[in-house]
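SEQUENCE AND FOLD
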Amino acid sequence: MSKRRSLQDAADISNKVPVMEKSSQAHKKIIIYLLAVILLLSALPPATCAENEILLNGTGIFLTTGESWSFDQGYYLKIKSVNQGTNKAWVELSLNGEVIREGILSEGETLVYSRNGEILNITLDTIYSSPQGELLTFKPVYQYIDSEIPEPEIKDKTENHQSDDNTSDSRLDGNNRSIPGFGTFLALVVITIVTYCLDKRAKKK
C-alpha cells in the first residue's frame, strides 16, 4: 500500500509541475504586458485638447467704437462701427493682422471662431449709445488655446533669473523628451531587461 501511495504521490507531483510552470509563465506574461502598457502610455505625448485648455472663462470686456481688444495668441477683436438706429455693431476678429471673421451683432448674439475646435466665443451683451459715441460690453467671453499656435507665456518673469546650471539641465531634459520615439525605445529596453531577468530566474528554478 505504501508503495502504491508513494507512486501516486510522485505522479501527482509530476502532474503539478507542468501546471506550476504554466502558471509561472502566465504570470510572467501578464507582468510583461502590464509593464508594456504602462511604459507605452507614459511614452505618449500629452494630448493637446484645445476645448479643455481655457484662457478666458466667461469673463466680460468692454470697448468703444474703433477700439480693439487684444487676446492671447495674437487674436484681436475690433469694433468697426455701430448703427444706433438698428442698435447693431459691426465687429471684426483678426489673427496677427489678418481678418479671419466679421459679423454684425445685435445684443445677445454671439461671434464664434473655430479651428480644430472652438477658439473664441464672444457674446455681445449691451450697446450703450450717446452723442459722444458708443460703449459695447461683451459677456460672456471664452477663449480656448489654439493648438496650431504657440501657447502664451504664463510664467512669472522672475523665473527667467534662474541659474545657468538649472537652465541647461532643463534644456537637456526637454531635448530628451522631444526626441521622436525616445519614450517607445526606452519602454522596449525596459521590457527586454525584465523579460531576460524573468527567464533567467525561471531557468534557475
